[in-house]
Amino acid sequence: MKVSYNELQGLCRKAFSGIGFEDGDAADAADMVAWMQCHGLHGVEQLNRGLDYLLAEDPEALTRVIYQDGDLAVLDGQGHSVLRSISLATELGFAKARARGLSVVKIRRCHNRQLIMGYLSRLAGRGMNITAFWRNAQVPLTEQVVGFRAGHTTPEVRVYSVRDVPEENEPNDGITLVMANHVELLPSLDADHDLDLLAHHPESELLACRELALKEGIEVDDAIWARLKTLAHRILVESSEASRGGAGAGVTDND
Questions:
Q1: For residues 152 and 126, what is the distance between their CA atoms, to the nearest angstrom?
Q2: Which positions ≥6 away from 212 have C-beta within 8 Å?
Q3: Fewest beta carbons less than 10 Å away: which of 38, 142, 192, 209?
Q4: Exposed, middle or buried: residue 63 (CB in 10 Å: 0-12, 13-18, 19+)?
Q5: Backbone region of residue 108 per phi and psi (left: phi > 0; alpha: psi in -120 to 50; beta: other values)
Q6: Where would I find the beta strands (DSSP E) of the chain?
């Protein structure tokens, strides 16, 4: 089925509220999913893959700073989706890069890492060059690089196959962000690069997807849409029950 950008954004926001997100976090997370879906990057599918994790997460287990100095920050995402753990981490990296020219932020123990792109788009729109890197635990082992140029809110995305996996290789559930004020960080691709490139989505391709989605609507799987509606309904039910409970308590007090 096809829905408008606003419909998708609104339903996702209600669904995140139903899961237990604070209002601001729910709005941010909804923006991220809608942003990815609009650019042809399967945001709703990525969300669906991580919904079971989101429903089981402890919202009280906040992202924790393990180490930081003027240029570097290492954070523990507490095993949460980036939709819960990444917003403040990206702002921390942005502030360091603004002050020092360059920053590196490493977020450990996080998942749904694809959904970080919408957050980075915001920072790129504020004049920051950004490269995000992470390794996917799959066969073949792959590494993904997402690069934003300052002032450009659409990235270039590349996925590479790791040819020679080292013996000491360990599962990687983290993500590394490099931000710079005045340096474009993503290297150009040419014939001299000895790489197994599995996928390449240039900025122009993603912009074309966005224009088509905004014009003709966004394609969403019916089953996933129904699941989001169920989560959105949860917040309505809980709100109604809370309202009835409050009204009942008031009558009792007056008596």
A1: 9
A2: none
A3: 192
A4: buried
A5: beta
A6: 2-3, 64-68, 72-81, 102-111, 129-136, 142-148, 156-161, 175-180, 196-201, 218-219
Q: 2-236, what's its fold? A: Ribosomal Protein S8; Chain: A, domain 1 (3.30.1370)
Cα–Cα dist 223/148, whole Å: 33
Run of H or E including 140: none
Residue 136, phi then psi, degrees to nearest 5: -95, 130
The DSSP result for 230-247, as a single string, is: HHHHHHHHHHHHHHHHHH
Sign, CA torsion 35/135/96/29: positive
Residue 177, both tokens = 């962000």
- Which two structure tokens, joined as six digits, stand for 228? 């989001």
Q: Are 103 and 96 in contact (CB under 8 A)?
A: yes
| Gap between the Cα atoms of 148 and 127, Å rounded | 10
Instruction: Please give the model's pTM, rounded to 2 decimal places.
Output: 0.83
pLDDT digits (tens, 9 = 90+) for 33-88: 999 999 999 989 988 888 888 888 887 788 889 999 999 999 998 888 888 878 88
Residues in the chain, total: 255
